[in-house]
Design a protein that fits this description.
The structure holds two protein chains of two kinds. Chain A contains nine helices and no strands. By secondary structure, chain A is mainly alpha-helical. Chain B is globular and about 60 Å long. The two termini of chain B are about 40 Å apart. In chain B, about 35% of the residues are buried. Classes of the chains: A mainly alpha, B mainly alpha.
């Protein structure tokens, strides 16, 4: 620790404070971009809504049958919709060079990635979480399960965003990465899908939902701490080409 | 410690690896040639039939070794990926690439033999039980790495990207396995527990052990043979590989 004052100390102090600024700056930048290109936010949401509409038509409009499949349908669609938004997560930054600037910058890439992930979650996952109860009602999911569905989505979508970001970063430099991204990340999504749908089904059956929700929280914690490392490594690889 | 370090550094040298792989390949090959026929004869003809499944259980002697190897292969891929990411060892990418093909084939084989076994036992070709489902997910993890490798043209980036994905997959496998088992207990309270071999007697169990070892040896031999070919292929510009290729062609 240095106790003397002077330019060196101030520079050191500034350096110590700046990393969090990098996170916040990256978050604000991405959030503003998301707000200004609103179609990128709304398209996955509309995809979600329009496919939810297909299920009563394809399977049956009977409330009992719909209620039975509702947790699964909503969760699978949340995963698919996340793929739609994830594909573009790094694409524009990669093509206009700002991803490279992120790598070259003196700030830790890890924190910039965390900021980016947070912004992505707020712009892409949060609207979906907010919209999900409406879809659940349309699929006749019992009202008492709504809060659990919301909790499971809130706890599960961070993991989905983190794992998906690893896949998105790995495929960013490839021309047509969409199908490849799906193939890479879908197997990794399975635990989230299992615990998310189970929690909701438990709530419908009146069972305790603490177990699966706790697991979702554990997975969220794990992926939030580990995935940014993998994403940073993948971004470095993409920029080295 | 010193010896280990020298060994580690030598692993980075393709000609050294190419040379040392040959005796090991033959060793594993001979071991497999002894163990697999012995285990098969023991298991398929000498071991007593199961009291419930009669002779149909004998597919276990092919199914279980392939299933164990399929998972070991992913472990090896994950470790190779880690080594490649940390030490940038080129050999690790060769191991990853070759183990990928072997592992994916073994996983597919385990699924197929499991399905053939399931037909007389469960009366269905496909059953969503915990192990079958985990195996299927494993197959898709293999496919994911394979597809990623196919999509990246530059060898350097291909190696690093697939190494990273392999490590991410390896970290996720225990979580996936646990969650699938948890999911299965939810939906099916142990109806098919007869697949969980209830304490196999030694005369059924020992041939299985021999076959597992034999399959491991076989995989070792095949892997080393593939690694040698791939090393020659990748080092085709270097003088040692050209000399070796000339020697192979003239003999």
């Amino acid at each position: 620790m240095r106790h003397s004052s002077g330019p060196a100390c101030r520079a050191w102090a500034a350096h110590r404070v700046r990393p969090l600024n990098a996170l916040v700056a990256q978050f604000l930048r991405d959030w503003r971009i998301a707000l200004r290109s609103r179609h990128e936010m709304t398209t996955p949401l509309m995809f979600f809504a329009v496919v939810v509409m297909l299920f009563p038509l394809a399977i049956s409009p009977e409330p009992e049958q719909l209620a039975a499949i509702a947790p699964g349908v909503i969760w699978v669609l949340a995963l698919l919709a996340s793929l739609l938004s994830l594909e573009g997560l790094f694409k524009r930054d990669f093509s206009d060079g700002s991803l490279e600037q992120m790598v070259l910058s003196a700030e830790p890439l890890f924190l910039a990635v965390v900021g980016k992930l947070l912004a992505h979650w707020c712009a892409a996952s949060l609207p979906l979480v907010i919209f999900a109860p409406i879809a659940a009602l349309a699929l006749s999911l019992p009202l008492e399960a709504l809060s659990t569905l919301l909790a499971s989505l809130l706890l599960g979508t961070p993991t989905v965003a983190c794992l998906g970001a690893v896949g998105a970063a790995l495929t960013v430099s490839l021309g047509r990465g969409g199908m490849l991204l799906a193939l890479i990340v879908m197997p990794l999504y399975i635990p989230v899908l299992i615990f998310g749908t189970s929690a909701t089904s438990f709530a419908v059956a009146g069972l305790s939902v603490a177990g699966p929700l706790a697991w979702l929280a554990v997975l969220a914690g794990l992926s939030l701490t580990l995935a940014p490392f993998a994403v940073s490594a993948a971004i470095r690889m993409a920029c080295e080409e | 410690m010193g010896m280990l370090k020298t060994f580690w550094h030598r692993l980075g040298s393709p000609p050294w690896m190419y040379g040392i792989a040959r005796p090991w390949m033959w060793g594993f090959g001979v071991l497999a040639a002894v163990l697999i026929p012995a285990g098969l004869i023991w298991g398929l003809f000498i071991a007593p039939p199961d009291y419930q499944q009669s002779d149909a259980f004998r597919i276990i002697y092919v199914h279980v070794p392939t299933a164990i190897l399929a998972q070991s292969c992913y472990l090896m891929i994950g470790i190779a990926g880690f080594v490649h990411l940390v030490w940038r060892m080129k050999l690790a990418d060769v191991v990853l690439q070759e183990a990928l093909v072997i592992g994916a084939s073994l996983t597919a084989l385990a699924l197929i033999t499991g399905s053939v076994w399931g037909r007389p036992m469960w009366g269905t070709w496909w059953e969503w039980d915990a192990r079958t489902t985990s195996m299927l997910i494993l197959l898709f993890l293999y496919f994911g790495i394979y597809a990623l490798r196919e999509a990246i043209p530059r060898p350097d980036s291909r190696a690093r990207a697939s190494a990273l994905l392999a490590v991410v997959g390896l970290i996720n496998i225990p979580i996936i396995k646990y969650s699938v088992e948890w999911w299965r207990t939810l939906h099916q309270p142990s109806t098919f527990s007869m697949v969980e071999q209830p304490k196999m007697p030694a005369e059924m169990y020992l041939p299985l052990l021999v076959l597992v070892l034999g399959f491991y040896a076989f995989m070792g031999a095949v892997l080393l043979a593939r690694i040698r070919v791939e090393l020659l292929n990748r080092e085709s510009g270097s003088s040692w590989a050209q000399a070796e290729a000339r020697r192979l062609l003239s003999s």
